[in-house]
What does this fold into?
Amino acid sequence: MTLSFADLAAAVDGPVFLPADDGFAGEIFAWNVANPHRPVVAVGATSTADVAAAVRWAGRHGLPVAVQATGHGAVRPAVGCVLITTSRMQDLFVDPEARTARVAAGVRWSRVIEVAAPHGLAPLSGSSSQVGVVGYTLGGGLGLLGRTFGHAADHVRSIEIVTAGGDVRTVDADNDRELFWAVRGGKGNFGIVTAVEFDLFDVPSLTGGGIYFPATHAAQVLHAYRAWAPTLPERMNTSLALLRLPPLPQLPEPLRGAFVVHLRVAYLGDAGDAKDILAPMLAAAPVLLGGVGDLPYQAVDSIHQDPVDPTPTRERGVLLGDLTAATVDGLLAAAGPQVDVPLIMVELRHLGGALARPPAVPNAVPGRDAAYSLFVVGLGVPELAPVVDAVTGAVLAAAAGDTVAGGLMNFSGGAGPDALLANWPAADRDRLLRVKRAYDPANMFSTNQALLPTS
Ligand SMILES: Cc1cc2nc3c(=O)[nH]c(=O)nc-3n(C[C@H](O)[C@H](O)[C@H](O)COP(=O)(O)OP(=O)(O)OC[C@H]3O[C@@H](n4cnc5c(N)ncnc54)[C@H](O)[C@@H]3O)c2cc1C
It folds into this structure.
């Protein structure tokens, strides 16, 4: 079939880019530069109507549809499809009385944080405020205050979504309930979300920061964390990462090009209490750099200090039911300071607390019984892919004794449909596929983290 791009351009207000056009490369550029997209056309949507028109056009031409807000979640390239970019969709409304926010598809967490903070409110954002609200939330949304309040997806009030066929639906606890269940956790498999409304939380005082420990004491720090984390109250949110930092001049000298262990802390309470709670970790090893203190929510990116510049990554994650001494020893053997491996990060996030409780309106976020998320990020350079995969496999194998079924979409990387479906128990898997077939019978939304293979 001939593709009638002129019809598409006439149907949308936003720009339409073909591969030969100036601006095409910039429009499709993804933060994760390991997976450059190769769509047949990119549509810079400016509104819900643009998204609906682009989806209808794709449907008429039998093309799959991909969506990109920031490219932080580009774990597979989007190829041979219509790529809808949402970065122009920036509507944002915060209601301080109702303690809610409603944002359009292109909004990043940084803008929500900025508008909510003057009201003493914060969203359930994650380690980097540069990530898009919608992609993060649909993938579960494991945030800095997750143990205290739950997953971001647990606090979504309603979603506006364009489903295959180009219908615009508002889905919530009373409307299209099965779709509302599936899309909160099952991510981009059911349509293009054009807006989302969610709860904000009172965060009157936050104590946070990151503490770097030297490679020489990696084992002491990991074993101390293993003993310490299970004792923590729900107000204390932590993660621990083995980091191989690049030799960048902007990094302070002790971190530049170094292997370090990074303890990240977000405590909903005052700094004095936090320091008491942290005492066993501070006693475990000398501190190389960093510390915790009062932190305005606008400064929470300083907790993880995730890279802001585009980065090539190759990722995989699993959930752990426990963190035993054997797993800690295995992780150190596979990815500790003594081995030379092309990994950027091996991260343990402490779960439990509110993350373990089902939300008021059930959703498809799996893994409620897990105690930790284990996430491995390798260097996403094509020539290194086999090595990264082998090393990642060895890290995950080292934790096999503690691994439980399930996985979070945001930490599942570029796994294929079967591996992604294994994130859910059989009944939820069947339910997701029923919803998928009901709302997207032709598997139009089949790029990136697809639950059904393209035929
Ligand atoms: C530095 C960094 C830090 C991170 N920190 C966390 C964290 O703390 N907690 C956490 O849970 N995750 C975290 N993530 C993972 C992140 O939440 C996911 O990668 C998420 O998909 C990014 O969304 P995006 O829109 O920014 O990315 P994009 O690459 O633009 O989108 C990725 C995918 O999200 C889905 N999506 C995006 N927009 C829409 C839409 N409008 N409708 C339907 N589907 C859509 C699609 O499946 C799309 O392919 C982090 C990722 C990075 C790179």
Notes: The chain has a mean pLDDT of 97. The first strand starts at residue 16 and ends at 17. The longest helix spans residues 271-284. The pocket of flavin-adenine dinucleotide is lined by residues 30, 67-74, 86, 105, 126-128, 131-132, 134-136, 138-142, 187-188, 192-193, 306, 410, 448-449 (CB under 6 Å).
